[in-house]
Amino acid sequence: MSPEDKVRNIADASKPNAGRIYDYFLGGNHNFEIDRQAAQPVLQASPFLPSLLKMIRWFLGEATRRLCEERYTKFLDFASGLPTVDHIHQVAPKGTKVIYSDIDPVTVAYANDIIGNNPNVRYVHCDAGKPEDLLNSGVIEELFGKDRKIAIGFNGIAWFLPDEPIDHYMDVMYEWAEKGSKLFTCDANSTGLSENAKTIMNQYAKFGQPFYPRTMEKLQELVKPWSVTEPGFMHLEKWMDMENIVTQETQDAWSWGGIYGVFLTK
Amino acid sequence: MLNKLTLQNNEKEQIKILRECFVRKRNELSNRITKSLLSMAFENRFTLHPRRLKELGLEETKNYQEFLTHLNIDKAKQIGRGHALEGLGVKPLLSIGNILRDSMICELEPQYSTILKLSEKLLDTYLSSYLLGFMTSREDQTLKEQEQIRKALSTALEQQRRELFIKNHAIHTYVNGIMLTNLEGSITYVNPAFLKMWCYDSTEEVFHIEIIRFLGADFNELMNVLKTTGGWQNEFTAHRRDGSSFELNISASLIKDDSNEPIGVMASFIDSTERKRLEAQFRQAQKMEALGQLAGGIVHDFNNLLQVITGYTSLEMMNAPRESDRYNNLMQIKVATERGKGLTEQLRFFTRQDTGKARTICLNDVVNETYNLLKRTFQPETQIRLTLDKDLRSVKADPSQMSQLLMNLCVNARDAMIMNKDAMKASRPRKTEENILTIETYNKDIDKTLAQLYLNAKPGKYICVKVSDTGIGMRPEVIERLFEPFFTTKSEKSGIGLGLAVVYGIVRNHNGFFDVQSTLGEGSSFEIFLPIFEEPAKKQVEEQHKPSLTHGKGAVLIVDDDSQMRELAVTTLKQCGYHTIVAEDGVEALSMYKKSKAEIDLVILDIIMPKMGGWECFRKLKELDPDIKVLIMTGYTTDGSVDDFLKEGAEDVILKPFDLETFTNMVNRVLKA
Ligand SMILES: Nc1ncnc2c1ncn2[C@@H]1O[C@H](COP(=O)(O)OP(=O)(O)OP(=O)(O)O)[C@@H](O)[C@H]1O
Ligand SMILES: C[S@+](CC[C@H](N)C(=O)[O-])C[C@H]1O[C@@H](n2cnc3c(N)ncnc32)[C@H](O)[C@@H]1O
Ligand SMILES: [Mg+2]
Description:
Chain A is of the alpha/beta class.
């Protein structure tokens, strides 16, 4: 899809759009009645979906908090979405440098609006499947200087990408980053995924966003050569000490392995 | 400005007690709020992180304590606004209020009964301000976000509008005719190219016409095909509003909406007249190519055969006594063979791959020369118009070939006009009474688009020579075969059908191309394109060259059956100061010579002539006057026979075709000798 088509798609009020439905599930206002209508059958079949998506978003905040505590001062984030009040540069201590990126030109344009002229933040266009485009652009050197010990975000995007680009992403980032860099990500564990869940995913795919569910073992393989830090792959609630176990609900409904997060290091 | 709650005097005392009470409950309150908020984590917006909830319980109690101290209503609103921005949900917000209310009113210990009313009042004020701030901010936020997406929508709409405009414009200015119809076959739109193609002034006119006229087929038929195959095509000869016809090529397809349902038909119209003409030309060119190869082979073999025949005939003639029947028969064979050679020579022109003696020339000079040769051979009422471009660029070409080319075209034009005159007598309708031959020259740049209009044309700079006549015109079948060797519509005597074959060969050998236009009964035009040669023509050399026709004095009898040849010789010799007399054959020549022997200084004698051939005439003349000066002029001869003539006493032999310089030189030399 060309950038122009994307702009048109996201703002085309005549057809439901995957991005806007995602926004609606999260509780945002960037959606139209037609999206809310289209979302209803999905919501009815899986009422826990909004909670699930919120958790994915919260894992981003969780990771930021943890990495800031570990004194990482430079963040490079992929598939960032809109940098609203909870995003990295809002959560991290003042002076933390953040480069966000996203494939969607509309998001990139809004995001720059929101950021304004914050000297420590950049928001650029990049396909997470081709990180080299961003790494080779001048913006890294301009904001980070020569430092390559970086905290890297790859959150909430893995299931939107096939295996091959993820493999490529991990290799390129590993090659580029300095020892001691950390990368956080989360993915769904598709082991045992029910037909019913697949139907729901296919429904969503029809609005323009296909899913690529994979097993945890597969992701473990894809993230190499990064090494997994303790305590390894953990359900998102666990990372955030939450009582409400959404994962349990989804496991009952979709009979899969739920959503887990992980921190990797070089 | 009311931003602080004012208390009555008795309340000022009570509030101190209330504050004390609150401080005692604070820790417990904070824990209750936190617990409640955590249990409702998913009720908040995604922007409010669960870790933040743990801080919120304590923050909330601090806030209320502060309110109890300063009674600042605005501050309460601000807190509400802040929570909304962070993403606190309505349920968790209300639960905070409920917990505060429970703990400060419902669960208030009996010893505090005096302050119950005040506590209620303060809590109401606080919570309502807090809620107000929260709600306005939520509204603002929603509006702002909705505004953002609306902005995106209008940007996209604007973009769509612009795109639509561009598409519209593209259809409107498209070179092919476009027609849109609904599914019932009513025309809903046609573009200007369509109107022009069909000679209509306005769209409305078109709307009133049966669609079958434009499609050459029934609309239902078209729909049936479209529904099964998705595409429909048609070719037919269409008639414009003014009655003129053109070749039409239509292709139609269904227009579908987003859900793939047909909503109309779009048809594209192409005038293929031009294309068809090119296709025909192309076929013709291919045929010519094949014929050329064939002819090339034949010419070679044929020449050898003719050579053998002439050789043996000559041998036999040496053995045969002159005047004998046998000798005469052999002579006939020889004459016929010579003619055969002449033909093969012409054919060779058609097949030859070189440009002869090419040099840089200005075609205007050739036109002028040819014009001078030709003008007398036309009927007196024929007008000849020369429109020569003074700035005509040069070409690299063999002048004699160019002259031949022009001559062939002009002779055809003359014939066509004579035939038209005959036709007129048979009262065929015709526009002009007068016969006009026009020879034009001009420069023409052929760009890519133009090049597509002509066969074998490459883009570049060209000069054109165009020969137009008001003659009989040609039928399409004739145009198709025009350049084929031996294709003629003329009687066997007047044409053998090599003229244009030679033109074709010459043009191709000079990397040129041509265009033929003809309307039956009105005339034809042949436009020859030759690539220019950039180096300027060496005018000076030309000028030194041209006037070098050798002048002299004396009377010359010219004997030739070919009127053109006679004319050529007469014109040239007159120009050079000679007096001329003409005879059409040997018999006439003899009688003329007998009559005016004293006045005639030189006889120029063609060899092959009807009635009495050149040989016989030559010998008879020699008998009449052994000192007679005879110059033999022949195109059909071999080296052997030149010698024969010289042996028999001819002054010299000049071979056709000759250049005029050589000719006049020779005449002059012979007369002086
Ligand atoms: N200007 C013209 N107007 C009408 N018909 C023409 C014209 N030029 C050529 N043609 C047609 O094309 C035929 C072929 O022409 P072409 O010059 O090759 O042969 P020809 O004139 O018949 O014989 P030749 O030139 O060998 O004496 C002619 O017989 C005539 O029918
Ligand atoms: C759910 S994802 C992740 C958002 C954010 N990182 C988070 O953790 O909540 C949403 C964003 O991913 C972006 N996205 C989708 N495919 C992408 C790709 N191949 N490369 C980069 N961004 C992509 C979308 O445009 C959208 O803004
Ligand atoms: Mg001819």
